[in-house]
Amino acid sequence: MITIKSRQEGFRRCGVAHSVAVTSYPDDRFSEKEQLILANEPMLHVVVESNDPSKSTGLKANDAIAAIKEAPDRAALDVFVQGETRKSVIEASKARWKELEA
C-alpha cells in the first residue's frame, strides 16, 4: 500500500490531485518511475508499505538507491529508510544522510 499526504490541497503530481488528508493507494497504482517521482517530491509525504520485507519501498534495490542519492532532504530520504531491510539500500541511505548533514 502507498500512502500520500500533500502539503497543499490539490497539489498535482503523476496525474493525481493529492490531498492534505492521508490517502491510500494500492501497490500497483503507480509505476516504479512514478513512485520515484512521488517520493522525491518535497510537496508530498509518501510512505510505501509492503508485507514483503525484501520490497519494503516497492522498488528494486538499484532504483531505491538511485532515488536515495537524489533525495533533496531528510523527509524524502525517510521514505526509503522506513521498514527497509536490504543492506545495500540501508548503506546508501546512511551515506546520503551524512551528505545532507554537511
Brief descriptors of the model:
102 residues, alpha+beta, 3-stranded antiparallel sheet, 4 helices
- Kindly state the percentage of residues in helix: 40-55%
Radius of gyration: 13 Å
Helix/strand order, N-terminal first: EEEEHEHHH
- Report how far apart the termini are: 33 Å
Q: Unreliable segments (pLDDT under 50, ≥5 consecutive)?
A: none
Task: Please outline the major beta sheet.
Answer: 3 strands, antiparallel
Number of helices: 4
Mean pLDDT: 83
DSSP strand (E) fraction? 15-25%
Classify the secondary structure makeup into a structural class.
Answer: alpha+beta
Please give the order of strands in the largest beta sheet.
Answer: 4-1-5
Helix and strand arrangement:
Layout: E1 2-6, E2 11-13, E3 16-18, E4 23-25, H1 32-39, E5 44-48, H2 61-70, H3 74-81, H4 87-101
Antiparallel strand pairs: 1-4, 1-5, 2-3
Architecture overview:
The protein is of the alpha+beta class. The chain has one domain. 40% of the residues lie in helices and 19% in strands. Strands 4-1-5 form a three-stranded antiparallel beta sheet. Helix 2 packs parallel to helix 4 and helix 3 runs antiparallel to helix 4. It is globular, with a radius of gyration of 13 Å. The mean pLDDT is 83.
Q: Would you summarize the structure shown here?
A:
By secondary structure, the protein is α+β, with helices and mostly antiparallel strands. It contains four helices and five strands.
